[in-house]
Amino acid sequence: MSDLPPTRWSMTQPVDPRRQTATKPGSADSMADAWEKEKMASIQERYERMRAIIDDWEINKKKKANRKMERIEAKPENKRAEALQSHHEEIKRIEEIAGGARAQAEKNRRKEELKRITTKAKRRLDPELEFKQVGDMAAEVDRPFNLTSILWP
């Protein structure tokens, strides 16, 4: 019996039941990639809306300050100089607040995207991590945007 060459059956490795999946190879990755793309698009869209809200806020505040300046310009010269200085300070303050809000929104967007990428990497490294668990983690992040928390800390 030992003189016979090994058969194909005897050369195969034992099958590990933990590594068997019911899905086609690669389909879980494609589902995860599709989920990832959908979530990243959702994040991007939400932060674009947030940027638009911040821009609208800035424009409205500047218009209001300009209208106030126009009313004051009709007053005597010393009042006009005072008002002009005040107006420049107000515009500068508005721009600082809007710039800070934009920076904070961008920082939050990058942080959230990094969290998604990290989650995806963990999911790829640990195949036993349930896809639904990752989806539940994402549900915590999707909450309504509150402009006052950024503009007035």
TrEMBL record:
Q: One Pfam family name from the record?
A: Remorin_C
Sequence ranges of Basic and acidic residues compositional bias: 67-87
- Source domain of life is Eukaryota
Using the record's annotation, list all stretches that form the Remorin C-terminal domain.
Answer: 28-119
Which InterPro entries does the UniProt entry name for this protein?
Remorin_C
Ranges for region Disordered: 1-37, 64-87
Q: Which family does it belong to?
A: Belongs to the remorin family.
Kindly provide the name given to this protein in its UniProt entry: Remorin C-terminal domain-containing protein
Record the organism: Sesamum radiatum
